Amino acid sequence: MTVVDVHAHVFPTLSQEESRILHDTDGPWLRVDPGGSGMMMSGAADYRPVDAPLWDPAVRVAQMDRTGVDIQVVSSTPIMFGYAEDPARSADWCELVNQRIVDFCAQAPTRLVPLCQVPLQDTERACEQLDRALATGHVGVHLGNHVGTRGLDDGAIREFLTHCAQQEAAVFVHPWDMLEGDRMSRYMLPWLVGMATETQLTILSLILSGAFEQLPASLRLCFAHGGGSFPYLLGRADNAWRRRDIVRADSAQPPSSYLDRFFLDSAVFDARAFRLLAEVMGTDRIMLGSDYPFPLGEEHPGELVRAADHLTRADRDRILGENALRFFGIEDRAPRPATAATST
Q1: How do 37-42 and 45-51 pair as beta strands?
Q2: Is residue 29 assigned to a domain?
Q3: Which helix (H) or strand (E) holds 4?
Q4: Residue 128's CB: how many other CB atoms inside 10 A?
Q5: Confidence label for 343 from pLDDT (cuts 50, 70 and 90)
């Protein structure tokens, strides 16, 4: 059984000088401190303390060995997206970031699989960047769930998603730039509440706008954090679709009819929530995701899946790895079983 973690972040070593490719003063970069610690930086300001697995592939693979993860699908840290910046500068930045991610994964090419990022604020440049990244070894793209006020249902962003389908590029969507305000200023509430809300907003917007009626059925789309609030509130959305014409104005079918158009990862951290996730999505639409290597991630990737007594062994195998191998088109990277030597 090959275990694949589809939700694993990286922040490759990028200097403050390199961050100025994106922004003159506030670009993201990585400060590496002695002893395996570091700091994600935004210009001169500290953003978040981090540890060596975020940028050191050898440390990462050693941890994967200890936790039983065979393959990680590696995506950038959302602070690196650069969607608010000048499109030309953002394109140059993405080119640099994507090359660094490829270089990072090349240190363990059978264990680490790269996803690129693109300047999503400019559809033409995003498509060009995706094509270049696929040619250098990326298997898909990591997207934030919105660009300013434009969600993934926006017409220009739908054009990019259509291009992803045409290029057979997998798409992993992560919430970022969360709704905030005075009531969300403490206790990491933007991460605890805002991220779940952002993901539900994105999925429902794609459904209720009719975007899934326009997007190719071949599009491989996965949302992080178990879909956020979406699985828990799906019944509310279906009820609203049935009872209010303003909800169903652009959507041909109720929200629950579109569950076969996307995947969710397993990062919900609670056995009851995971049972609901499996009941709503089915085990062929869930992939293991840990949010590695951040503190809010699953400490032992796959533990929740393995402990779920409502799953069959086949269910667990699908969620822990089989679904991801197919979704990302990386079946050839699965470890081969040892073949017993034959005597002559």
Answers
A1: antiparallel
A2: no
A3: strand 4-10
A4: 16
A5: very low
Nearest Cα to 224, choosing from 276, 294, 139, 291?
291
Rg (CA), the chain: 20
CA atoms within 13 A on the CB side of 64: 25
- State the total domains in the chain: 1
Residue 304: its H or E element: helix 303-306
Residue 192 dihedral angles phi and psi, to the nearest 5°: -80, -35
161-189 pLDDT, tens per residue? 999 999 999 999 999 988 777 888 888 88
Domain range spanning residue 78? 4-12+52-333
Q: Which residues of 94-120 are buried (b: 16+ CB within 10 A; e: fewer)?
A: bbebbbbbbebbeebeebbbbbbbbbb
List b or e across 185-211, with b for residues whose CB sees 16 or more CB atoms inside 10 angstroms: eeeeebeebbbbbbbbbbbbbbbbbeb
Task: State pLDDT tens for residues 314-340.
Answer: 999 999 999 999 999 999 887 765 444
**Residue 340 included in any domain:** no
Cα separation, 199 vs 146, in Å, equals 10
The helix (run of H) or strand (run of E) holding residue 134 is helix 123-135
- Give the chain's mean pLDDT: 94
pTM of the model: 0.94
Q: Where are the beta strands (DSSP E) in 120-187?
A: 140-144, 146-147, 150-151, 170-174
CA distances from 285 to 104, 213, 280, 319 (A): 29, 19, 10, 8
Assigned domain for 21 exists: no
pLDDT in tens, 260-302: 999 999 999 999 999 999 999 999 999 999 999 998 899 899 9
Domain contains 18: no
Amino acid at 202: T
CATH of residue 289: 3.20.20.140
pLDDT score for 336: 62
Taking CA atoms, 47 is separated from 30, 42, 51, 201, 301, in Å, by 10, 6, 13, 26, 26
User: Helical H runs in 16-113?
Assistant: 16-19, 57-67, 87-106
